[in-house]
Amino acid sequence: MDDTRLSILLLIWLGAVLTLAVGRSWRRTRGTGLVLGYVVNIWMIHWLAPALYVLRWYDGFDQGIVEAGL
User: Fold this and answer.
1) Which residues contact 21 (CB under 8 A, 6 or more apart)?
2) Which distant-in-sequence residues (6+ apart) come within 8 Å of 52 by Cβ?
3) What average pLDDT does this structure show over 30-47?
């Protein structure tokens, strides 16, 4: 199973979340953290499951379906 494309997509997601977190903290405006909480929630449901497919021992659905969902 070739998981390089899936790894790249996961890194793009991680970069987007980190960019948002750093950008929000750098602006020094008051807020309740709802934007970051929303993004972390979306990140967990869309990133955590495909991250299992990067593991060598995990055998699940077809990787093409997982990439399309990610």
Assistant:
1) 36
2) 58, 60
3) 80
Cβ neighbours for 67, distance < 8 A, ≥ 6 positions apart: 5, 6, 9, 50
Instruction: Specify the pLDDT at position 70.
Output: 67
The DSSP-derived string for 49-61 is HHHHHHSTT---S
Whether pTM > 0.85 for this model: the answer is no
Question: Mean per-residue pLDDT for 36-65?
Answer: 77
Cβ neighbours of 10 (radius 10 Å):
19
Residue 35: CB atoms within 10 A of its CB come to 12
